[in-house]
TrEMBL record:
One Pfam family this sequence matches: TctA
Lineage, highest ranks first: Bacteria, Pseudomonadati, Pseudomonadota, Gammaproteobacteria, Oceanospirillales
The DUF112 domain, residue ranges: 20-447
Listed InterPro entries: DUF112_TM (IPR002823)
UniProtKB keywords: Membrane, Transmembrane, Transmembrane helix
Transmembrane segments: 20-48, 60-87, 107-136, 148-164, 323-346, 366-389, 401-434, 440-459, 471-494
Name of protein: Tripartite tricarboxylate transporter permease
């Protein structure tokens, strides 16, 4: 209770004009970086890290928190307007956001994304403040076998969510898993599947895969449909956008339901507490759960606001969850919290169980900034800048996609400083383009690639600890829980009511 009071009192620090400027500037920078393919909020924080040396630790952490929240929110802008997620966590948002944009409801889609982000971000931060120590202890109960079963559960769920297209979805996921095995072995100092190419020793970096799969392939898709896409842009550019169009009507919010927002936020929060899980898995699971429980699952992927609300609520709630292992055990939940951990260590603050009691006065303002970013800066930014976001679609397609292509290629280079990885982004783009043309949902490919390394590592560790006995996954309660959960999802999504796929990659 004392810590909660301390956080409440920390909101007064935002009345300091200088601190407020840093927090708002951080949010705007994070939004811009997150909305441009290849330039993530992680990169923004990494580039701005040297500036934190000149700030006191409290101000630096408050600015980092606002960048973090913006990074989860900003990716929904281009995901909705041009079907290119600016961040991995917004991939599921594009599935329903872009169809709404094509229907002339882009402003409303961004409004639903902002509302979901606001609710998820605020709930995640509040849960972090209220129950962080308890959740940290619970997350430690998930051992190696349980982590493997959790990752396998995530892959199975997103594959079976492609109703009517599960075979191709499974094949795409397998391609992603295979690509993730290229490079150094996770357990032994040997290289695999490099075909004698030294550049593949470190494997294929995540950013080129994301940029190629979404940005490059989308550019190729639009190029093959140049005439139609230009007509669509002309039609959409004639729609008069008013700021009130970004405010979702109360009837639509009621239709989505409080349960959807809260449940998706809880999924995102608890997924965030697992190191390495990140916003992508949170939004995947929340979206799949929303499809499973919907009375009209075939409407997803065609412009259902409920899909946007679930995805954005979950990925922003991850912010609060990912800070739990970082603050209480010094284990970063994702790349951004890894950089924030660096800020703490640089300033002589040692994360651990005693941090929230011994140095709570340094941590409380950061959590206050997280809540402020969610409740104030997300809706305020959309209200003030939303009309400019939506005008992206009115830009000539040849100019727009030419600039995106340039940013994507440059972004893939900046992310890795490797010409080879930049070429891999182009290769992945061409591969994803042909897969999409043949009806393969490339989102499962990306999920397989993201989760592949940890899936393999936890599988091999589990088998090594049990002397090769696969029954270890059924005798450990944490693993058995996720196996049962997987079977429940398989039953409800694939067996009980097999329907046409609600998810489409365009």
């Amino acid at each position: 209770m004392e810590f909660i009071s301390l956080v409440g009192g920390s909101f007064a620090m935002l009345l300091d004009p200088l601190i407020l400027v840093y927090v708002v500037a951080g949010f705007l920078i994070g939004t811009i970086f997150a909305s441009i393919p290849g330039l993530t909020a992680t990169l923004a924080l990494a580039l701005l890290l040297p500036l934190t040396y000149s700030l006191d630790v409290t101000t630096a952490l408050m600015a980092c928190a606002s960048i973090y929240m913006a990074g989860m929110t900003g990716g929904s802008i281009t995901a909705t307007t041009i079907n290119i997620p600016g961040a991995p966590s917004s991939m599921m948002t594009a599935l329903d956001g872009y169809p709404m944009q094509l229907q002339g409801k882009g402003a409303l889609a961004l409004g639903h994304a902002a509302l979901g982000s606001m609710v998820g971000g605020a709930l995640g931060a509040i849960l972090l403040i209220a129950i962080a120590p308890f959740v940290a202890e619970a997350s430690l109960l998930v051992k190696t076998t349980g982590k493997f079963s959790l990752l396998a559960f995530a892959i199975v769920v997103i594959v079976i969510a492609q109703r009517g297209n599960m075979v191709k979805a499974g094949m795409a996921a397998c391609i992603g898993l295979m690509l993730s095995t290229i490079g150094l072995d996770a357990m032994e100092p040997i290289t695999r599947f490099t075909f004698g190419m030294a550049d593949l020793t470190a494997g294929i970096d995540l950013m080129p895969v994301i940029i190629g799969t979404f940005a490059i392939s989308e550019i190729l898709m639009q190029a093959s449909l140049a005439v139609d896409s230009n007509k669509t842009a002309e039609a959409l550019s004639k729609v008069k956008i008013r700021r009130r169009d970004f405010i979702p009507p109360l009837s639509a919010i009621r239709e989505i339901g409080v349960v959807c927002y809260v449940k998706s936020s809880l999924i995102g929060y608890f997924v965030g507490t697992l190191p390495g899980a990140g916003g992508s898995m949170g939004s995947f699971l929340a979206y799949a759960e929303t499809v499973r429980t919907s009375s009209n699952p075939e409407s997803f992927g065609k412009g259902n606001p409920k899909g946007i609300a679930a995805s954005e609520s979950a990925n922003n709630a991850v912010c609060g969850g990912a800070l739990v292992p970082m603050l209480t055990f010094g284990i970063p939940g994702d790349p951004i919290t890894a950089i924030m951990l660096g800020v703490l260590v640089i300033n002589g603050i040692q994360p651990g169980p005693q941090l929230m009691s011994g140095q709570a006065d340094l941590i409380a303002p950061m959590l206050a900034s997280l809540v402020f970013s969610a409740l104030v800066l997300i809706p305020l930014t959309l209200f003030l800048l939303g009309p400019y976001f939506i005008k992206i679609v009115s830009i000539r397609k040849d100019v727009l996609y030419g600039v995106i292509a340039l940013l994507a290629v440059v972004g893939s280079y900046v992310a890795t400083y490797s010409t080879f990885q930049m070429i891999m982004a182009l290769v992945m783009g061409v591969l994803a383009y042909y897969l999409r043309k043949d009806g393969f949902p490339v989102i499962t490919l990306l999920l397989g690639f993201i989760l592949g390394p940890n899936l393999e590592e936890f599988l091999r560790r589990s088998l090594a600890l049990s002397n090769g006995n696969p029954l270890t996954f059924f005798t450990n309660l944490d693993s058995l829980f996720f196996i049962i959960l997987t079977l429940i999802f398989v039953y409800f999504l694939a067996i009980k009511k097999p329907l046409k796929s609600p998810v489409s990659d365009g």
